[in-house]
């Protein structure tokens, strides 16, 4: 690891000012991804701004019954918060499907949004990688690409976003609150992460000097019919090959509102709200769920090693929607789906 300067921010304003003063500075919260990346010399910040003392750990109840989750609230604190478990069980399930208990104790809400891809080549500075070194090429295209994207990829990068929590936040239509040199602004969750395009080095739409302060969830009617299904090579401490956050609002057996977000298949949590809207009024049954899966995966393209993800994702969507429609609650800590 290389030497770096260390400062501790006491206020959000101090953190923003420090970020603006040094374009190569990085924020340190839980450090569960950043420290690894520094050890691999993928990230080489000239300074580290420790934000752990900022007052951003609280989970507040909003007037409409929604929640405002502080950026420094740990993954564990959010997953086990009774308000999250009762009103947003999808979020709790997704968080508990990720990482290990130790990591969830350290990892933060804001950090989860900013974690970087687990593409093997990104972590290996001896190989070309446009995300790590723009213009150097993409080793995964034509290389080993079993874990890579089947939706929304570009000729520059086929990496996937690794988060479980973000897949649930995408389905729930969260809002990201940020503070920057121009003041505060809200970013719709669907606009926060980027597809790779010609600039895979940019994972998100944060501007220079901006810091995430909270994630907001509005009240919804999905609590009784939602599920998070994660498919991976082993049952614990592994990233998703395919994951599905499914949420349904059902009245008299018909779909009022349907949300399906996919993880492990694209550079960002994948959602298609226009396609979802086509299924309003349809019966919440197996035939509809199969049609949803076909519609959502219609544009999928494999890279060779990862071709299996396309039929796997179709089956996972149907299975997750079936589980959500059944209304049987999951037991998040068991990570099982019925
Ligand atoms: Fe780098 Fe993206 Fe290619 Fe992986 S897929 S090697 S992160 S450019």
Describe this structure in words.
- The longest helix has 18 residues, at 309-326.
- A hairpin with a 5-residue loop joins strand 4 and strand 5.
- Among the domains are: 5-50, Uridine Diphospho-n-acetylenolpyruvylglucosamine Reductase, domain 2 (2-Layer Sandwich); 226-326, Enolase-like, domain 1 (2-Layer Sandwich).
- It has 338 residues and is α+β, with helices and mostly antiparallel strands.
- It has helices at residues 12-21, 34-39, 75-80, 82-87, 89-96, 101-106, 109-114, 165-171, 189-192, 273-277, 286-296, 309-326; strands spanning 5-8, 25-28, 47-50, 59-61, 67-70, 175-180, 183-188, 211-217, 226-231, 242-251, 254-263.
- The strands form three sheets. Strands 4-5-8-6-7 form a five-stranded antiparallel sheet. A three-stranded parallel sheet has the order 1-3-2, with helices on one face. Strands 9-10-11 form a three-stranded antiparallel sheet, with helices on both faces.
- The termini are far apart.
- Bound molecules: iron/sulfur cluster.
- Iron/sulfur cluster is lined by residues 117, 119, 121-122, 129-131, 138-140, 148, 157-159, 200.
Explain the layout of strands and helices:
Blueprint: E1 5-8, H1 12-21, E2 25-28, H2 34-39, E3 47-50, E4 59-61, E5 67-70, H3 75-80, H4 82-87, H5 89-96, H6 101-106, H7 109-114, H8 165-171, E6 175-180, E7 183-188, H9 189-192, E8 211-217, E9 226-231, E10 242-251, E11 254-263, H10 273-277, H11 286-296, H12 309-326
Parallel strand pairs: 1-3, 2-3
Antiparallel strand pairs: 4-5, 5-8, 6-7, 6-8, 9-10, 10-11
The chain binds iron/sulfur cluster.
């Amino acid at each position: 690891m290389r030497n770096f300067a260390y400062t501790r921010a006491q206020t959000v304003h101090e953190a923003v000012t420090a970020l603006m003063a040094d374009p190569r500075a990085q924020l340190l919260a839980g450090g569960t991804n950043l420290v690894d990346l520094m050890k691999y010399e993928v990230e080489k910040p000239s300074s580290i701004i420790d934000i752990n003392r900022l007052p951003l750990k609280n989970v507040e109840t909003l007037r409409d019954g929604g929640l405002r989750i502080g950026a420094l609230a740990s993954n564990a604190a959010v997953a086990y918060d009774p308000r999250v478990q009762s009103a947003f069980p999808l979020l709790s399930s997704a968080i508990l499907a990720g990482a290990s208990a130790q990591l969830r104790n350290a990892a933060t809400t804001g950090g989860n949004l900013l974690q970087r891809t687990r593409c093997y080549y990104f972590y290996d500075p001896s190989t070309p990688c446009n995300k790590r070194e723009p213009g150097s090429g993409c080793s995964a295209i034509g290389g080993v690409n079993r874990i890579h994207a089947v939706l929304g990829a570009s000729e520059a990068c086929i990496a996937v976003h690794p988060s479980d929590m973000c897949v649930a936040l995408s389905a729930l239509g969260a809002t990201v609150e940020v503070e920057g040199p121009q003041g505060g602004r809200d970013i719709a969750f669907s606009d926060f992460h980027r597809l790779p395009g010609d600039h895979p080095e940019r994972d998100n739409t944060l501007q220079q000097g901006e810091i995430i302060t909270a994630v907001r969830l509005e009240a919804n009617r999905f609590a009784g019919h939602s599920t998070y299904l994660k498919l991976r090579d082993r049952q614990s401490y592994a990233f998703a090959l395919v994951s599905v956050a499914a949420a349904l609002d059902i009245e008299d057996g018909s779909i009022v509102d349907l949300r399906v977000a996919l993880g492990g298949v694209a550079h960002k949590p994948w959602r298609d709200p226009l396609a979802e809207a086509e299924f309003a009024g349809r019966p919440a049954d197996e035939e509809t769920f199969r049609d949803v899966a076909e519609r959502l995966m219609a544009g999928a393209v494999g890279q060779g090693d990862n071709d299996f993800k396309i039929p796997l994702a179709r089956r996972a969507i149907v299975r997750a929607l079936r589980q959500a429609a059944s209304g049987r609650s999951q037991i998040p800590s068991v990570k099982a789906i019925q």
